[in-house]
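Protein of interest.
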Amino acid sequence: MGIRVMVQRRKSSRWKITGKLAKRAKAGYIVTNVTKRVLPVKKAIRLSKIKNSLADSTMNKIDNISLRTAKQIGLYYPTFRRS
């Protein structure tokens, strides 16, 4: 399973998670770029082998890492914006 987290900010605002999705690898594959199935992350975690008791803490860790990564990249590209 591959998880994508979209993190964005406006010019003078804080980073925010604006979307999350997961891609499941096709049977017999370990890479997720060979799939057409995209799922909400919560559903993908429920379908995975992650125990239900760990699902919330796993999502919190993913969110935290995503926001920390965006903040760090933002230090190097403070004015970068795609038009």
In short: The radius of gyration is 15 Å.
